Amino acid sequence: MDDWKEAGKIAKTVLSYGAGLIKSDAKILDVCEEIENKIFKLGAKCAFPVNVSINKVAAHNTALPDDQTIIEDGDLVKLDIGVSVNGAIGDCAITVDLGDNKKLVEASREALNEGIKIAKEGIKIGDIGEIIQKTIQKFGFSPIRNLSGHSLDRYKIHAGLTIPNYNNHDSKKLKKNMIIAIEPFATTGVGKVMEGGKSGIYKMEKIKPVRDTNCRNIIKYIQEEYNGLPFAARWICKKFKNSVFSLRLLEKEGIIKQYPQLVEESKGLVSQTEKTILVGEGILT
Ligand code: MN
Ligand code: MN
Fold it and tell me: Which terminal residue of the chain, N or C, has fewer Cβ atoms less than 10 Å from its own Cβ?
């Protein structure tokens, strides 16, 4: 359990450091890189690229290699980070409000607090969803139903179990020593996300021979360095020449897959709060 505790501790430290970087006029490229550098400085690795998702984008966005996006006054910014210590993962997120969305931020934060309070051994998973849903609705907003928390395992961000943000009547029960991330999303919109633009986040999809030498070297690097965890186009661009071309080729071959951004269907604003917990022991991040 030591690696999980260490990953959680670093994730917590880095999340609050990162939140301090979210200001109007900050480039999301600088924000992502400074946070990732901090993770390395503290002796850990990224479990996934730093996610900075703004306003109606709920999740799955990191800075592209040449990203010029600037955070603007009034933006609602979700910062979601993952720290890996030998594959043990701390996954946590916070929403920074540069506008007038205090209540919306509070809704996801309160929903997380309420969810964590009851997330003990023996509790039904649907009941966690129910309290999240009710808390968010009490604030006058909707939970996003097709985004959810999850169990974690070494080198696995989604380890099989889904922790819903509404009562899906799942009667499976939490067990002692399960590691789960609870992550309520609250929105002013209809409460559903759809696929949007490019996220800059990739995963290894399937192994298959490829002729191009640069592509072969990139695959080898991805396997050794990330071991199944998601990675950023930015990271590959720093290590290899012609990365943009090679990544496109690998994507076309179905060897890697780029995640799409997840955007609220009715363009509603979205807040998110997330923590990783160890059932029976408490909060890790
Ligand atoms: Mn997360
Ligand atoms: Mn998560």
Answer: N
Contact 99, 56 (CB under 8 A): no
Same domain, 79 and 188: yes
76-127 pLDDT tens trace: 999 999 999 999 999 999 999 999 999 999 999 999 999 999 999 999 999 9
Gap from CA of 82 to ligand 1 centroid (Å): 6
Q: Which residues are catalytic?
A: 80, 91, 150, 158, 183, 274
Q: What confidence tens digit (pLDDT) does each residue in 254-275 have?
A: 999 999 999 999 999 999 999 9
Residues 274 and 246 reside in one and the same domain? no
Which domain range does residue 15 map to?
2-194+269-283
Clarify whether residues 278 and 206 are in a common domain.
no
| Interval between CA 249 and ligand 2 midpoint (Å) | 29
Smallest-distance ligand from the CA of 158: 2
How much is the pTM? 0.97
Q: What string of DSSP letters covers 196-262? A: EEEEEEEEE--------HHHHHHHHHHHHHHTTS-EEHHHHHHHSTTHHHHHHHHHHTTSEEEEEEE
Q: Do 67 and 137 belong together in one domain?
A: yes
Domain count, the chain: 2
Residues 52 and 179 in one domain: yes
